Task: structure prediction
Amino acid sequence: MTKRDMTLAGIMVVGVLSSSLVFAQSQEKPHQETQQIDRYIAMLRTDLTAQKTSIVVSNMHLTAAETEAFWSVYRKYTKEQDKVGDAKVAVIKEYATSVNDIDDKKAKALTAKALKVEEQRLRVIKKFIGEFGKVLSAKQVARFFQLEIQMQRMVDLQVAAALPLIE
Result:
């Protein structure tokens, strides 16, 4: 993964999260702000998907026969991970809208939701290790998930850096 790819992804994630936090701190036009944030998130996902695809293509070195089978499984994998991503965005939005007034009860609930999202992400990965293993060698599956987890960690790091700590 190139430094340029990491930088672009980081800038987009920080931009979306900054917009979310601005929204949380000034709710003069909540409906418009929510729609704008949703548009930013959609754009971010489109860009990240294109970047991920490019990174996978340039690093997997698949044969013609493997390519068709891989992308079929990859589309299913992405669809399931997108659902997990939706849940993560919902938790981030909930956090952003209440960042200034989180009590112990809310902190506990948000922590539980965040952990549930991480568990869902891992369940999908474990499931698809087996699915990819039906069409690729174990080394290729490991290589794909190395790339996938590295990219996800980059996004997670950018998200974490953009969110303020609970006071």
Notes: Residues 1-12, 14-28 have pLDDT under 50 and may be disordered. Residues 64-98 form the longest helix (35 residues). Residues 3-162 form one domain.
